[in-house]
Design a protein that fits this description.
The protein has 516 residues and is an alpha/beta fold. Among the domains are: 5-69 and 244-281 and 297-322 and 378-493, no CATH class; 82-167, no CATH class. 36% of the residues lie in helices and 19% in strands. The protein contains 15 helices and 20 strands. It has helices spanning 5-13, 18-30, 52-66, 86-94, 102-109, 112-119, 127-137, 146-158, 185-196, 214-232, 277-281, 299-330, 337-350, 364-375, 420-427, and strands spanning 37-40, 42-43, 46-48, 71-76, 174-178, 181-184, 198-199, 202-208, 235-241, 249-253, 268-269, 287-291, 379-386, 394-399, 405-410, 431-432, 436-440, 461-467, 470-476, 489-494. Strands 2, 3, 4, 7, 8, 9, 12, 13, 16, 17 and 20 form an eleven-stranded mixed sheet that branches. Strand 8 (202-208), helix 10 (214-232) and strand 9 (235-241) form a beta-alpha-beta unit. Helix 3 (52-66) packs across helix 12 (299-330) and helix 12 (299-330) packs antiparallel against helix 14 (364-375). The termini are far apart.
């Protein structure tokens, strides 16, 4: 596909190489490469499960090491919260309070989401803020019928000239209420970091945000930082980054032509959360906890939940210690054949890494080098929760194009469900990924890994989107905890379901875990 001189200038201005764009076009035209599932990971086969005694051992191991570690909490927090309010936008479009009561609307439409929203209205953390604003906009609000009041309330939440909640990211919306004071998810993440992601009374947090929201995050940080530091005796070091422009991808029309804007320029789009591997790679810390912005519960409940974060941290600390000791031993000239066999057995049984069939035939020096390449990688410990039908990825054994089998987190979009054998494997999946990770991103010499070297570029997604009424084929980079970490050492550990409390729709804020 030929690019004009103008196209080339645009591509270069974004920091993207022309060959990268050509590869994007080729990838979309050739279609997705589906994962080759071998089996679902289950308890005892790919997923570790620890009793309370063993869990406490790991928690203590982490706590004993905690003040020696440089820890950061990495929170993807970009993107507007518009999907949280999708059903409310639909309500405003369809409901006419002049011709129908809201109760009749709910019954006629069988709209369970609106029914839940209306019934729980006063329990939302933003209720007081919205009500105060609504009364300022509508002087007769107190005289409105129930239907009129509900319509005015929702309009006040969503209208651009009112509170405009859907413009803001989830992190800046009122999430919880304490003593009638509403607090944001952003504030809750700072407070949560003191429970497990701090060291020597210092907590590092990094939020990936959109550029248009950055100033609002800074304003919220200025508002809450001093109060939280005094309350928790913790110094907060908060940093932000944007999804990099050079990670954006183009799109093709359904007849495989480059989709262009009205001015003829190429449309480049954010390439999904997989682009954030670049942001993660810019961090220089010993341990990184990763958690999504909307998966945060009220503080009292969080005290129990956070114990499992420390457990995962302890699993990582133990794994790193053993891996680092083996790597240092492999640097020695006098390592024995028996030790090489012990290391190989450790890799397969504890690190979930496959060893080639020809390993036994290698010379000792070749065995050492082979084992080094298998062990000297970033390590991630991922919490896995019981599958209760939530959308998202899950833990599977996957065979790559070289025939190597490894543990991976696989999104369902990466699976060829039309393939009966693959579909049967999915049916046997007992757990799914709640995005609850702790990562070791330095090697045994204390040097930071270049995380970009461990990405599987074949794990990209092709999704159908609509742009200005036109269907387009959009390309998303390998997901942050999917293909972007494909060549990491992965350890999966079962954690309780109550560690996963995401807010996908605004009604989720009515659940007990979000009620202070």
């Amino acid at each position: 596909m030929m690019f004009s001189e103008k196209d080339t200038r645009q591509i270069n201005s974004k920091g993207i190489a022309l060959k990268q764009v050509e590869a994007q076009v080729s990838r979309i035209k050739n279609g997705m490469t589906y994962s080759n599932l071998i089996a679902a990971a289950n308890i005892g086969k790919g997923i570790e499960s620890y009793n309370s005694y063993k869990s406490q051992e790991f928690i203590k191991r982490f706590e004993d090491k905690q003040n020696e570690l440089d820890i950061v909490k990495f929170v993807p927090a970009s993107g507007a919260a518009s999907r949280m309010f999708k059903f409310l936008f639909q309500f405003l479009k369809n409901f006419d309070s002049n011709n129908e009561t809201i109760d009749a609307y709910i019954e006629n439409k069988n709209d369970k989401l609106i029914k839940t929203f209306v019934a729980g209205l006063e329990n939302f953390p933003f209720y007081t803020e919205v009500l105060t604003k609504a009364k300022a906009i509508y002087p007769n609000y107190d005289n409105f019928s129930k239907s009129e009041a509900c319509t005015a309330f929702v309009k006040t939440m969503l209208d651009e000239n009112a509170l405009n909640y859907s413009f803001f990211p989830k992190g800046l919306l009122p999430f919880h209420t304490y003593n009638n004071v509403a607090v944001t998810a952003f504030r809750e993440h700072l407070l949560e970091s003191t429970l497990y992601a701090s060291s020597n009374n210092k907590a590092n947090l990094h939020f990936t945000v959109s550029e248009k929201h950055h100033k609002y995050f800074n304003a919220e940080l200025s508002k809450i930082k001093s109060e939280l530091e005094e309350k928790t005796n913790t110094t907060f070091n908060v940093s932000f980054s944007y999804q990099k422009e050079e990670t954006e991808t183009l799109a093709l029309t359904t007849d495989n032509q480059i989709y262009r804007n009205e001015d003829g320029s190429i449309l480049f789009r954010p390439a999904g959360h997989g682009a954030l591997i670049e942001n993660l790679n810019d961090l220089d810390h010993d341990i990184v906890f990763i958690k999504n912005i909307d998966n945060i519960v009220v503080f009292e409940k969080n005290k129990d939940v956070s114990e499992y974060k420390k457990m995962l941290g302890g699993v990582l600390v133990e794994a790193q210690e053993r891996v680092f000791n083996f790597l240092k031993r492999l640097d020695d000239t006098d390592v024995s054949e028996a030790e090489l066999l012990e290391i190989a057995q450790f890799i397969t049984s504890k690190m979930n890494v496959s060893i080639g069939d020809d390993f036994d035939d290698l010379a000792s020096e070749d065995k050492k080098n082979y084992l080094k390449t298998k062990l000297n990688k970033p390590i991630r410990v991922c919490g896995m929760v019981e599958n209760v039908g939530e959308p998202g990825g899950g833990p599977f054994y996957v065979k790559d194009k070289n025939g190597d089998v490894s543990l991976q987190i696989v999104e369902f979009a990466q699976i060829d469900i039309d393939n009966t054998a693959q579909a049967d494997i999915v049916k046997n999946a007992s757990h799914f990924n709640p995005t609850d990770l702790v990562c070791g991103i330095k090697n045994y010499k204390g040097e930071k890994f270049n995380l970009l070297n461990y990405v599987d570029p074949e794990a990209a997604f092709i999704t159908m989107k609509t742009q200005n009424g036109t269907d387009i084929q959009a390309l998303e980079l390998p997901g942050l905890w999917n293909g972007s970490m494909a060549d990491w050492i992965s350890i999966f550990v079962e954690v309780p379901l109550n560690t996963f409390s995401p807010v996908k729709t605004v009604n989720d804020l009515l659940k007990p875990e979000h009620q202070g």
